[in-house]
Predict the structure.
Amino acid sequence: MRTLAKTIDLVAAFDASPNPYMLLDAQLCYAGMNQAYLDVIHRRREELLGKPILQEYDAGPGAEAAENNRQLAASFEKVLTTGQSDHLAVLHYPIPIQNAEGETIYDDRYWSATHTPIKDETGRVTHILQHTTDITELERLRRQVARLRPDESTSALDSLIGGGMFRRAMSVQADNRRLETERRQLMDMFMQTPGFVAVLNGPQHVIQLHNGSYGQLIGHRDVLGKPIREALPELAGQGYYDCLDDVLATGEPFQGRQSPVQLQQTPNGSLTTRYLNFIYQPIRNDMGEIIGIFVQGHDVTETVVAAERQKLMIDELNHRVKNTLATVQSIAMQTARSHDDPRTFAETFQSRILSLSHTHDLLTRSHWEGADLRAVLEHETTAHGLHRLTLNGPNLALDPAMAVSLGMIFHELATNAAKYGALTPGEGRVAVDWSVADLKNPQLTIIWREMGGPTVAPPERRGFGSRLIERNVRHDLAGTVQMHYRNDGFTAEITIPLNKEAG
């Protein structure tokens, strides 16, 4: 009962006060007001409760109205944002009233206002209490004196009625508005800069402020108000704590270029490596003492990774070009030894280079990550008519080196079959079967079997094609090959280890 009585006494005192008071909620809607406030604005309580103040009062007509309204709104916003009181020394804000004819007119008024935050138990601002003082008559008298005595603006009378005080108050208020606008613009630039920025305070490097890019870099962790060693513990042992300590101790900036850093970018996630260009700049107070560090930089991980990838690709390209040139040189030399006629040499050499080119085309499509065995076979035999070939086996990805070697082997087998075997004009066919056995030490077996062609016999001398097949299988692929010349057709059985270490 005693608490209730005290509450009633406070409400009664609030309403009976001769000074105008009104109460706004956090949405800037009227939550209460006393009778003195209602008398000043000529309104009834039920007309205002729950209504937005800036909608009910728009500062009236005139060129100054928008700026006057902005000043009032900015003061409210400052109280809500900072949780601290704000003062408007002089605010020009006309009040709409009804004249005798029922028309709305504006009573020109000047006010001095104080806005005080009211907080809940958690410290959150829930309401704003406004206390206003009507200084209209004083301002009018000051202006009248200024008109009558334009050369005596600093007279005793002017000082007596507060003209000098008003000018100083309005000047300070204008400066504060200008400084607040500049501060807000700088803060917006700070928060929106594409690079990461942060402000660290004191010897423990407490994170006072950071922008969105910095938050993204560290996985949007709640680090404000925490020392850097607590906020980002994974930096221990990476040298960054020491660099910050050195900058604070010496006042010398520190710059990092493409510096690797291990960061936890997701909650409870593993560490990821990022590369940063950054600078640590000392922050000094008015006495020249170093009180903090300004951190600014950019995440250049994508640039570093792209440069490393490009170098790797160039090195790989150089390696492939050397290997390809060596292969072409070997093909040219071996083909020349087997052909005395320049015309037949040119035809054979060109067909072998085209075979090499076909396999390279396949590998280029997969960015040299490999090619499928069936695709290599089809590329090397399609010129002889796929309807005369039967390909049977599982999908099998070949690495680039194996694809090049098998492409040349299949080309030689198909060329020999077209010249002497089952792919000569007629009804002959070729069946190619492949399989993989022994999963612990996988072995690829390929059987090339020719059927329905002319009778074949072992060659009187080993040509370049046979030597190329044997050399590629045994030397390049670390496998074995057996070639059989039977009356019913030629057969080649190739076995290759898929595990390179085993091979």
Observations:
- Residues 1-8, 152-165 have pLDDT under 50 and may be disordered.
- The first strand starts at residue 21 and ends at 25.
- Residues 355 and 408 are 6 Å apart (CA to CA).
- The domain at 194-299 is CATH 3.30.450.20 (Beta-Lactamase).
